Amino acid sequence: MKKGWLILAVFLSVLSLAGCNQSGAAVGTAAADQIPVVNSQDSNTIIAEGAITPARSSYLSFEMPGDVVNILVETGDRVEAGDLLIQLDSRELALSLQSAEQDLVAQKAALQQLLNGASDKVIARADKSNRDQIAQAEVALLAKQLQLEKTRAEDPSIGVTAAQARVEQLEFQLAQTRAQDPAPAVTIAQVGLERARIALADTQDEYNKSIDRPWEDQEIRDAWADRLEQVQLDYRLAQAQLENALDNQQAHGVGLSVMAAQIKEARTQLAQALISQQTFSSTLDILAADVEAARLQLGALETWDNPYRDEPSAEEISQLEVMVQKAEIGVETLKLTMEDAQVVAPFDGVVVDVQVEVGDQVNHGQVAVVMATLGELEILTTDLTELDVVKVAVGQPVIVTVDALPDDEFAGTVTEIALQGQDYRGDVVYQVTVVLDEGQAIEALRWGMTTMIEIETK
User: Fold this and answer.
1) Residues with Cβ within 8 Å of residue 206, at least 6 apart in sequence
2) Which of 6, 245, 375, 422 shows a CA-CA span of 20 to 30 A to 20?
3) Helices and strands counted in the chain (H then E)
4) Distance from C-alpha of 30 to C-alpha of 202, rounded to nearest angstrom
């Protein structure tokens, strides 16, 4: 859409200029240091949309997980290639590296000692080391055997049986409780209350009639009064019985809910017990394998023959040389890992964004710093079609206008044309790279700004 509006605006400007020329008005010439506006309606002019991007940018990420302990830059800082930007906690790595370096020294010393031949003192030391290793291996074998026996004693099948019994017991209790439905008692109490109400109404009516008949004996009126009092007591009793039946019904519902929750929990415990039972056999196999490995290790130490008593063979020398090489590789690997705990500037540029803080726990591949060469900007087109790209060649001059700076124009040159097209809103487009010419004030330009470029073809 931006491309279309720009073409329309330039077209209207051309018409306006044409009208002025027809009326005889003089057309001013551009200053020598300004870039002439290209007529977008000219068949030799190609217009495309683009975006400003640094000539070089990088999203620097961590090569290992860890805790950020030091940030040496802020957004906007200029850095040089090789500058340290961020450090992760590498104390454990430093200790491992120190241990690996010591191991390398020991391996080299062992190789040299083998080449020089062992002294009596060295032979005795090796014998003692072997005896110490045998003692440690015996303890390790005993510990693994005890662990195996302890695990066997913790057979989860007992827990499974108990959990199954618990579920069955609760389900039986739930069935019994459901069988004790208080609803009939509520119905009976409601019927009794209704009868008591009717009896109360009838008795009240008879009592009122006896009051209205003063000629009757006082004994009759007193009898009806006694009867009314009794019926009133019966009615209140029926009300209490109904309330009690309703309370029982509510309590029965709560009890059913509680028992249902208990059954759900018991079934969950049963499922957990079944899982434990399934993994129990595998755990026993692993522990048994550990015991066998410890037994083999002890046997190897017990049958060990002190090599320092013999002349070194070519194979022994080769083996120690391999050990030295492995130790050297281990040291170099740890050194590389130590480097992975740092984020270093790969080129001279500006820190655009710092995305972590001291104390953050970061993951492998997590972006930490964004860097770019903001002093070296270029334009990447987004909608140059296959019909137009054939008219473009490396080295062609370009006029660049920026949406954010409509009154300014910048000169540039085509430096690269993509070899492969991409789909853009149904069209096949080819990305063209434009580098801004030197000597222009580009301080106001920002990474990501939208631009329009005009390429004059011949």
Assistant:
1) 224, 227
2) 6
3) 8, 16
4) 118
Could you tell me the domains of the chain?
2-55+373-456 (2.40.30.170), 63-89+341-370 (2.40.50.100), 152-297 (1.10.287.1700)
List residues bridging with 86 in a β-sheet: 71, 343
Tokens matching residue 207 = 């009592």
Q: Is 376 helix (H, G, I), strand (E, B) or coil?
A: coil
On whether the pTM is more than 0.85, the answer is no
Torsion of CA 230, 234, 235, 238, to 10 degrees: 170
How far is it, in rounded angstroms, from Cα 170 to Cα 178? 12
- Residue 259's alpha-carbon distances to 253, 255, 326, 352, in angstroms, are 10, 6, 64, 62
Integer-rounded Cα radius of gyration of the chain: 47
The residue type at 59: Y
**Token match 């394998």: residue?**
289
Per-residue pLDDT tens listing for the chain (458 residues): 344 434 434 333 433 333 333 333 333 333 333 333 333 445 688 999 999 999 899 999 988 899 999 999 999 999 999 999 999 998 988 899 899 999 999 989 888 877 877 777 878 888 899 999 999 999 999 999 998 888 888 777 777 888 888 888 888 888 888 888 888 888 888 898 889 889 888 888 888 888 887 777 788 878 888 888 898 898 899 889 889 988 888 888 888 888 888 888 888 888 888 887 778 888 888 999 999 999 999 999 989 888 777 777 788 788 988 999 999 999 999 888 888 888 999 999 999 999 999 999 999 999 999 999 988 889 999 999 999 999 999 999 999 999 999 999 999 999 999 999 999 888 899 999 999 988 888 888 999 999 999 998 86
The rounded distance, in Å, linking the Cα atoms of 397 and 409 is 13
> Distances from the Cα of 238 to the Cαs of 141, 144, 204, 226, 268, in angstroms?
79, 74, 17, 19, 45
| Residue 263 exposure: Cα atoms within 13 Å on the Cβ side | 14
Dihedral of CA atoms 280, 285, 286, 290 in degrees, nearest 10, equals 140
Which amino acid makes up residue 133?
Q
DSSP 30: P
